[in-house]
Amino acid sequence: MGDNYRDYSKRTPHVDRSVHPDAAHESGGNTRGVDGEKNWQDMSSGDLKRAAEDQHDRPLGTFVGEEGVKEREGDEYLGGSTAFGGAWAEREQAVNADSGDIGRAAQAAPPAQSRPQPTTFAAPAAEPSFRYEPEKQAPRDFFSKPSDLGYDANDRSFVHELPRPPYPTLTFYRRCMLAGFQLGSFIGTTLAFFLIVGVAVVSAGIKKVNPFHKSPPRARVDKEFEARVSGERFSARAAYYAEYWGYKCEDVDIETEDGFILRLHHLTSPKHEKPGYPVILQHGILSNSVTFMVNEERSLAFWLLEQGYDVYVSNIRTNFGMPHRTYSNSDPRYYAWGVKEIAMYDLPAIVDYPAYIGHSQGCGTMYIALSRGVRPDLGNKLACFISLAPAVYAGPALRKFPFSLMRKFAKSRKVWNLVFGVREFIPIISILQRYLPAWLFGHFANVVFQFVFGFHDHNWLKRQIPKFFRSVAVANSAELLLYMGVLSVENCAFDTTTTEPWFPPSMPPLAIFYGTLDTLVLGKPLIERIRSHEPHVRLVKAVALENYEHQDPLWAHTAHKECYPGILEVLVATQNGYPARA
């Protein structure tokens, strides 16, 4: 694994104080937020770089490394005090015995045969050290007062607001002006894009020939699995991948309150006659639902099907060209939405007592939705919230070129709209994806994304790279990408200057999985914030994935061993505290 790999498998099992409610706050670097001298919203690029290094050198949560998976047991990996805090559960049971608080009471684990068991790639998950008691659950009558359900309907929000200007009636003159501005934006962003491509190619070439450049060590692979030819095409359709691996895919269209039609893929396995517990998978920015299905049979969506779950893979608005009830795709109002609209309208349209697993922006939007003053009622409709590489705290990659330019543009909405237009963000990307051969676009996009986002492909199989980028770099609105610009400016999706909790008591049980090499967004500061300032958040699992980067929880060829078993344990431990699917 190289000199940079640190083997945690031989460490003495320890109690993980990062998720313990009584733990002392022992953070490193300048990540202290309201507790320290420097606030996240004032941090420089150097501060963010040191925070990313601290995340790698001193990660919080259960450590999961490639070799340690086979050797680590009990407290050190699945279950035990590091994962669910048995001592915490016993103490909280005494305190909350009569409160009806969800997720606080301990009880004996149910028989093993009553739980879905891993069948393909993992050994059966260890017993959780506590489970949720349905008898202790508060009534979930949605005609009750909001205060009875753990939130205030008129509460203030701590999300950074982006006031949207009103869109006037499109007269002929305004349509002509809009077309002119869009044409200018298209030409300008296309030229800038190819400039970035040139810089990325030159940078990649220099790294190849530079004998002093050190890349993360490549993870060891199964030679036979790496060399095999699966027969898959480089498709952009979810149904193709599902049917290829023997599953059924049904498209479900849902309309949001503001008129957008969302496309969900309902995946089922012929191995299981009865539908299992529902799980929703939500993708990240510049991506779509297919990103959960391109890692062959080791894809997270298919792995969950093998465990007996009922899997729904969702999309945000306008993905796959889905329409609006009123606006055509030439109307700027079709693209006039961002993360707040996804949180306010898209997520409420798709959740109804499932477990929710989000990646990147798919986590960020749910954190926003569950926060005070947005849609905290959603917390009463989720069994649990599992966040993979959560996009809440910005990493140092968002301060480098070209995000350093986007950061300047994001300070003024007028400048942003003038540069990127009011429709699709850099449309030349989707044009190239549509017309270039998949293998060519995939390798070309890999070079560009490594330069722009600071990714590496050391945990990916080379032959899968063209397929990965069939589900990435999809068309998104320029308004949505403004979120990345604002995240670069503020360094956090929420106001970090306040000591008030961001989340209400209705927040569902939470699990966080993050890569120690992720420089796009940082997971460790979020864990520290929850530990020190969020008394209503029940952080049931925190996992630091050793040598993992932003996309690796989904695309790493070892994810089925290092990441998915922890996800399974959270699902097993939380699903019995909520209503079963009818």
Automatic annotation (TrEMBL):
Keywords linked to the UniProt accession: Hydrolase, Membrane, Transmembrane, Transmembrane helix
Pfam families recorded: Abhydro_lipase
GO BP: lipid metabolic process
Biased composition (Basic and acidic residues): 1-25, 47-59
Annotated ranges, domain Partial AB-hydrolase lipase: 239-295
Biased composition range(s): Low complexity: 104-118
Stretches for region Disordered: 1-82, 103-122
Spans traversing the lipid bilayer: 183-206
GO MF annotations, alphabetized: hydrolase activity
PANTHER family assigned to the protein according to its UniProt record, in alphabetical order: LYSOSOMAL ACID LIPASE-RELATED
Name of protein: Alpha/Beta hydrolase protein
Source organism (scientific name): Rhodotorula diobovata
Organism taxonomic ancestry: Eukaryota, Fungi, Dikarya, Basidiomycota, Pucciniomycotina
